[in-house]
């Protein structure tokens, strides 16, 4: 979950999400640690970002919406591999 207070990566990710929403894109954020602190989730909801927590729900979303997805931004490389292996097969037109 992008937590803006004092974490450069979180500030950067929040700004990227804001920019994508500003471009009219549908943005879905999936915290791989499944943490959804209400105050931060509310900030994302107010921006128009959908938040999906829970590994099962995330994989289900990727499976169901994959053909319509065009871009996946994976941050924090030490956890990105958990999703990366699911992207090529289920998101044929996507860019990672």
UniProtKB/TrEMBL annotation:
This is Uncharacterized protein. It comes from the Bacteria.
């Amino acid at each position: 979950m992008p937590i803006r207070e004092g974490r450069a990566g979180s500030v950067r990710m929040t700004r990227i999400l804001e920019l994508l929403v500003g471009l009219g894109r549908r943005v879905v954020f999936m915290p791989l640690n499944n943490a959804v602190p209400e105050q931060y989730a509310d900030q994302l909801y107010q921006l128009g970002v959908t938040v999906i927590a829970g590994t099962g729900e995330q994989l289900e979303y990727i499976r169901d919406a994959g053909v319509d997805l065009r871009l996946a931004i994976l941050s924090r490389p030490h956890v990105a591999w958990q999703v990366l292996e699911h992207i090529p097969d289920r998101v044929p037109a996507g860019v990672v």
